[in-house]
Design brief:
The protein contains 4 helices and no strands. The chain has about 130 residues and is mainly alpha-helical.
Length: about 130
Amino acid sequence: MTIPDLTQLSQLPVNDIAAIILICGGVFFFLTSTIGLLRFPDLYSRMHATGKGDTLAVLLIIAGAICHHGINLNSAKLLLIAIFIFIANPTGTHAIGRAAYRCGIKPWTRKDQDTRAAEAAIQEDRK
């Protein structure tokens, strides 16, 4: 299999263009969910970002692979994988969040940020 030359997009088949768009969209959502994982303040918001973003990203990438390969047995297998991921990812994220809440991990609030900022200022004054 050869990698298509992207400088000649007008000569690519429609299914390859659709595959490129879907896979690039999936990579974008993986990137944004990774940024959310690194930047959000607590477990619940991080799980929300990664749970939603990763599910959508995987579905877009699998849809891009199906568009690229056309309709065949491999596409049917990819479709079954996509259905499983569509069901399993949100269920797993919900179970982890519920377990964290039952273990006593409280959601982040603005008050927590203000308290931490005040404690940091006090520690700076002590130096």
